[in-house]
Amino acid sequence: MADVIPTNSQEEAAQGRMALWLAAEDLQWLARHCCCPEDASPDEKDRCGRLRFRASAALHKHDQSD
Asked: Taking the model in full, what pTM does it have?
């Protein structure tokens, strides 16, 4: 397994990212739920996929920290 690299808040901020604290139940819902309509553009589908991936990754990271 790869070493866990802690999040660097300054590096994330430099990329325009910000922290978002959600309950595990909300992350679980977000990780498996897609709200894209059938006629969603590729950009919309890509954004949805990124959000779902990030939610899943956050849950995975949390599970490994227990």
From this structure: 0.72
